[in-house]
Amino acid sequence: MFRLPFLFIFTGLVSFALFQLFSLFDFATWLTVLGDQPRYPTGWSRIHLLVLGWATMIAMGAVYQLVPVVLQNHGLFSKKLGYVHYCFFAIGTAGLLIGFQTMQVMMIATFATLAFIGILLFAFNIATTLIRANKWDPITISVACSVVYLVLGGTAGMLMGLNFYFQQWGDFHERLLGAHICLAAIGWFGMLITGLSYKMLPMFYLSHGYPVRLQKVVIVLWNAGVLVGASSFLFNGPGWLKWTGLLLIVLAMITYSYHLSQMVKHRHKPNPGVGILWSYSIAHCMTIIGIILVILIPFIPELIVQSRMIVILGWLYLWGWIGLTILSYLSKIVPFLWWTHKYGPKIGKGKMPTMSDLIDDRHVRITLSVIASSLFILLVGLGWNQPMITSVGGSILALSSLFYISMIGYVFAK
């Protein structure tokens, strides 16, 4: 089983490194342009490299690895189908990125379709695995919901790709874009991170005996928020409906953060590792930011209307929560997978390194701090409309991210 998730995680790491190298090469000026003009070829290409090439690749690998663990006695429906899925999705994503960069509409439409076929194969594989196991709990339900949102978000994305070529839908293309972002960014990543956290945090904190009722509340609120938000974009709903969708997501975040505190309260291991501590803190920070936004938006509706603010909020969500959470989890997942693969069969056969020997927690803490600080500088630059500050923040972010991902990659050499 290790090879399949490893293939996705390795491809995700390479995509992440490429994304950071591109930012370094142009001194992160693409981010400055993105602040002024959110929709332009390089911006589309870079955003999809980050979201599809990195975050979604890593997320798919994590699902292939963790779902059989959650289901215990039930393996993945088909590993071969997983490899076929990888081929379609990797080729489709690579072609889509080039299509965006060069604005070749036929290429965008063709490779968006290939990437979507990959998503459908992934959804079929995971759905069949879950249905055959018939073990429904908050973790498997969250994973199932996230995969549904991935398919819906992918459908919206593929239709937009086709419309780039056929140019038939006029204003509906804009509404489809809002629904695509809502379903893919908030539905797919949000449901997956919250659901897998119910497995990850107790596993590394050694938490037992904590109440799980709030997990169901998070699922209901998060789904309601995504559906209300996506519908408001798709059917051109009023501003208050979009705010209602955000309110539901923030209520879900509040419940989720409180539930994480319950897990920590019932821990038997005081230090689960820096990565887990960071993921826990990031969830609380994003909850506070969400609460502030929900309060401010009725008084300052421009916050979700101005393109620059949308870029800032989008970057804050994508990098501030999804990106940092994935990076934090990688510092635990990769050493765990590699140690289990390489040293697991050698247990009791002599001296071997411990899992904590594979990556230095001090370096993880320092690098994550630099990444978070540079992200703050970048956002200040975007908000203040200061290109130099944006470029400096973006370049430090790229450099520190490259160092971090090198640390993760070096685990495979130990």
TrEMBL record:
Keyword NADP: no
Organism: Paenibacillus crassostreae
Ranges that cross the membrane: 7-31, 51-71, 83-100, 106-127, 139-165, 177-196, 217-235, 241-261, 273-297, 309-330, 364-384, 396-413
Key word Lyase present: no
Keyword terms: Membrane, Transmembrane, Transmembrane helix
InterPro entries: Cyt_c_oxase-like_su1_sf (IPR036927)
Name recorded for this polypeptide: Cytochrome C oxidase subunit I
Domain of life the protein comes from: Bacteria
Coiled-coil segments on the chain, per record: none
